[in-house]
Amino acid sequence: MSCHKYAAAFMPKEAIGYLACLLVPAILWLYLRKIVGSKFPRVGKNPWIHGLANARNDFLKNGRALTEEGYQKYRGSMYVVQTADTERLILSNSFLDELRALPEAQLSSRAAQCDRHLGYHTTLDVVNQSSLHSDVCRAPLTKHSAPLALALYEETQFALTKVSLAKCVPDSEDYEYFSAYPMMMNTLNRVMSRALVGYPMCRNKTWLSTAMSYTINAFTISGTLRDQYHFLRPIIYRFLPARREIYRQLATANQLLVPLLKERATTGGKIDNLQWLTDSAFIGLAAINASNMGVVNAIFDLCAMPEYIETLRKEIEKCTTEAGGWNLSAINNMERLDSFLKESQRINHPGIFSFNRKVLKPLTLSNGSVIPKGTFIAMPTYFIARDAEYYPSPEVFQPWRFYEKSKANGKANSQYQFCSTSRENLAFGYGKSACPGRFFAALQMKIILADLVMRYDFKFPDGQTKRPESDFADERISPSKTQLVGFRLRKLAK
Ligand SMILES: *[C@@H]1O[C@H](CO)[C@@H](O)[C@H](O)[C@H]1NC(C)=O
Ligand SMILES: *[C@@H]1O[C@H](CO)[C@@H](O)[C@H](O)[C@H]1NC(C)=O
Ligand SMILES: *[C@@H]1O[C@H](CO)[C@@H](O)[C@H](O)[C@H]1NC(C)=O
Ligand SMILES: *[C@@H]1O[C@H](CO)[C@@H](O)[C@H](O)[C@H]1NC(C)=O
Ligand SMILES: *[C@@H]1O[C@H](CO)[C@@H](O)[C@H](O)[C@H]1NC(C)=O
């Protein structure tokens, strides 16, 4: 028999009422003291004083300013901030080395992803249940990257010439204008699909629209629900139109993919990423969004600094000539292109935080600080990447910054490659749970940008010389979704 039932049996109702009147404030006070008097300093509004909704809203609007304030005050240490989803302990990157070694059972990136993106509600919790996405991604996608590179190149050419930029006709002097963000999003959806489901399914309209709207619905659901109280979420979730659609989309995807899966199982399969997809569509689809931001940012940077286009063209031409055509080794040799993308990513980070983890077992840092179970931690990657201690003249776009660093450091230069992670650049995360798709994402982005640069001229509308400001909302940073970019096919003499 539970404690309160015992009490009820022996106490009159009134006494329970009085007791409750005393106990509830006492417990509340203890709880508040624990949180308010937390041993970590706080930046931004305290949800226990200003209200949770207020504090969240404040971060939603001023996330960048709050994080900058925190970075300046507690650069080498840590502080707590209420973000738009959970409260987070923001740690200095000086703790990276001790943290990266911890097992997933103690410091979990998956649990952080699921809790923060409301996995249970968006079928994203597949991420939680299997580590397949990272294993599969590491093995086949990397192992088969030579044939994959050819397939991606072919699909990029198709997607740009025949679909996204089909309005650009040969020999026309005029630029055709497109909103770069959605245009590239559709291109990436196609190129990504080529890798995930192969040809010809990657050209199937049903598949393409399912994959695209699945991503949008999943983001819609998590965006809507996280503003609600925990206990209301399952109820509200039931009535969200996006929920019904997600289930429909998964059913459609299954219908499309099952025959393919069967066929591959019997024929042995070629580049078999299907299992990966069906296990964890989210990873692939999230990658579309992230890769898209990378490509769009690089396009904006090239429009704003067209003087670098010629250098890139020369390099790409040299690499493809030397390799006798477009193949993986040609693409791997495009070091300036790699450097350009990395610098563009350094300046235009996709988010303010990285190294998001949830503490599943209490942990003690080297200096004795104890981080309690249930804490969400993160690192302020955006400000680390703009720290003059790591990057001289951090605000200046130096396209060959990483190229030169890697040349200066001789053989051991892989840390300056676009897809490598380092303490100073956490855009792809760090440690065991660093984004497993980053090799693939980097390959895909390089191919698309290289093909664009080689076959198209592009520019901002007349009169515009500067790239548009990125949109900051919450901890997310996005390149402008409406910026127009003009494209025309290059006249390739020869
Ligand atoms: C541990 O280091 C952090 C940052 O340097 C500091 O804020 C914290 O107070 C330290 N904790 C202890 C117990 O020394
Ligand atoms: C994810 O995994 C963690 C630890 O394994 C667990 O505590 C959590 O409840 C799981 N979440 C979901 C959505 O399954
Ligand atoms: C897409 O693929 C499915 C399954 O192979 C097929 O039934 C359908 O007709 C295709 N749709 C289009 C638009 O090609
Ligand atoms: C992609 O990322 C951007 C910026 O972080 C976000 O606003 C958007 O909701 C995400 N999802 C889609 C489907 O665009
Ligand atoms: C591709 O790369 C290899 C080096 O790995 C090279 O020998 C070959 O000639 C290249 N070109 C083509 C068109 O395959």
Strand order of the largest sheet: 1-2-3-9-6-4
Number of strands: 13
Number of helices: 22
- Kindly state the percentage of residues in helix: 55-70%
Distance between the termini: 89 Å
The fold-level CATH name is: Cytochrome p450
The bound ligands are: 2-acetamido-2-deoxy-beta-D-glucopyranose
Quickly give the CATH architecture.
Orthogonal Bundle
Counting structural domains, the number is 1
CATH superfamily: Cytochrome P450
What's the level 1 CATH class? Answer: Mainly Alpha
Mean pLDDT: 82
Q: For the CA atoms, what is the radius of gyration?
A: 25 Å
Shape: globular
Low-confidence stretches: 1-10, 123-140, 269-276
Helix and strand content put the structural class at alpha+beta
- Main sheet summary: 6 strands, mixed
| DSSP strand content | 5-15%
InterPro entries: Cyt_P450, Cyt_P450_E_grp-IV, Cyt_P450_sf
Transmembrane segments: 15-32
Binding site for heme: 435
Protein name: Ent-kaurene oxidase
Write up what this structure looks like:
The protein has 494 residues and is an alpha+beta fold. It has one domain: Cytochrome P450 (Cytochrome p450). The chain is built from 22 helices and 13 strands. The protein has helices spanning 3-10, 13-36, 47-50, 52-73, 96-100, 109-116, 119-122, 126-129, 132-143, 145-164, 180-197, 205-225, 233-238, 241-267, 274-279, 281-304, 309-323, 328-332, 335-347, 381-384, 401-408, 438-455, and strands at 42-43, 78-82, 87-91, 107-108, 176-179, 354-359, 363-364, 370-371, 376-379, 456-459, 471-473, 476-478, 484-489. Strands 1-2-3-9-6-4 form a six-stranded mixed β-sheet. The protein has a three-stranded antiparallel β-sheet with strand order 5-13-10. A two-stranded antiparallel sheet has the order 7-8. Helix 16 (281-304) runs parallel beside helix 22. The structure holds 2-acetamido-2-deoxy-beta-D-glucopyranose (5 copies). Residues 215-216, 219, 289, 476, 478 line the site of one 2-acetamido-2-deoxy-beta-D-glucopyranose (NAG). One 2-acetamido-2-deoxy-beta-D-glucopyranose binds next to helix 12. Heme binds at residue 435.
